[in-house]
Structure formats: C-alpha cells, structure tokens
C-alpha cells in the first residue's frame, strides 16, 4: 500500500486530462446538441503543435500558441459541422476526426511525440511522483473555476447558457445561436488542446491517440449527461484514479475497459431512471 499515494496523484493528473476533453464535449453539446467526435483530435493537434512550437519558443508561450491553434481548429470544425442539422453534424465531426489522421501523419509523421514538462519529482508518503502531474492538477482546477465564472458572470457566457437552455428563446431576444455554436466549438478546441498540452510530457501522443482520449473524455462527460462540467470533472478524476489503481495493482491493458464499462453502467442507469420517472429535462 506504500505506492497508493503515488497512484492517487498520478490518477488525478490523468483524470484532469480526461475531464478537460470531456468538458470540451460538454461545452459543445450544451449549446448545439452535437456530440463532437472530433474532440480527441483537438487534443492531438494541441500536443503536436506544442512539440513543434517548443523547438523555437520558450515554455509557456509555446503551449499557449498550441492551445490557440487547437481553438482555431475547433472553430473551423464547428463552422463545417453546424452547416447541417445536429444528427448530420455528428457524422461530420466523425469524418473530420478521421480526416485529421491524414493531416497529422502528413505534417508530423506517425511516430510518438512528446516534450519536456515540469522537471523533477516529489515524495508523497513513500511514493515518488513526477512533479508534472501536480502541474496538470494545478492548471485544470482553476480552468474549471474560470469556466464556471465565465458562464455565470459574463454576457457572452450567459448568452451561451441561454442557447443551451432554450435556443428558440435565445433567437427571439437577439442572440445569434449559430455564432454561439461556433464559439462553443472554439472553446471545445481550446479545452481539448489544453488537455493534449498538459498530458503529453507524461504520456506520449501519437496521431491516433484521440481514440483513447475521446473514449475516456466521453466516459467522464456522460456522467453528467453531457451537460454538467462540474460532474464531468468529478467523472474524469474518478476515471483517472480507477485506471491508475487498475494499472498499479492489476493489468494496465484493462484501463480502456474501465472507461467503456463505466459508460455502459451509467447509460444503463440513466435509461432505467428515465423509465422510472419519465422524460425529464436535463439540468444546465
């Protein structure tokens, strides 16, 4: 049990990455009702761009530039996807995520990429943990707090919330729902890019790493019905810790199985709740 504190911190750091990907899914779905299957690709683009930018830019600036590129990619995906209805947009985002493979291989190749993160390690109990995991946690929590303030205290955030609550009423009072949808995709791109930038120093990223990220991010987001960022954060942390414990005390090959199993359990539970209570409106 001496390794338990290390597994917990490692799991929390990994779970923060899942939560950021999941929160991007939530940001898009709340406003547009589109399940964005390209969300994992935003993380890969952010990670790959950071690896390239850091060859010429200092830390901090290189990562911020990579997140900005991911936000622009998110905006472009949103402009294409929202040109159709939500059901078709789901297929469009899936197609764009596959298309991203070709672009990523063409630009960066098919070899894993990484870059240096926060150096050193800390001792927690009897376990040694990379300091970068603490950085991931230390960045993610303020980001979620900032998102909460953005959606509740700013005019743009309130407009996005209005679109999530009632798009028709938002149109009536003069809110451009389509532009808000584009903004939601840009926010999703930035959150995905941030996830990729944060986790790459401790987990190498390849062009097809978006599959793992989207599976785990979706598992975190589905706990809150794809509408509640705070529950998504809790789901990501729970998932990351569970996977770390499975890898530490069991077999690391079953980590993805944990995410899939969690999704199945939650979906079955939510379906049972709907049958029991009848259709209910999702909280926002």
Automatic annotation (TrEMBL):
GO cellular component, one term: plasma membrane
InterPro entries: ABC_transp_permease, BCAA_transport_permease
Biological processes, Gene Ontology terms: amino acid transport
Span of the signal peptide: none
Gene Ontology molecular function, alphabetical: transmembrane transporter activity
CDD domains in alphabetical order: TM_PBP1_LivH_like
Topology within the bilayer: Multi-pass membrane protein
Source organism, top-level taxon: Bacteria
Subcellular location: Cell membrane
Keywords: Amino-acid transport, Cell membrane, Membrane, Transmembrane, Transmembrane helix, Transport
Membrane-spanning residues: 6-29, 41-58, 64-82, 89-109, 129-151, 180-199
Family membership noted in the UniProt record: Belongs to the binding-protein-dependent transport system permease family. LivHM subfamily.
PANTHER family, per database record: ABC TRANSPORTER PERMEASE PROTEIN, BRANCHED-CHAIN AMINO ACID TRANSPORT SYSTEM PERMEASE PROTEIN LIVH
Protein name according to UniProt: Branched-chain amino acid transport system permease protein
Species annotation: Actinophytocola algeriensis
Taxonomic lineage from the root: Bacteria, Bacillati, Actinomycetota, Actinomycetes, Pseudonocardiales
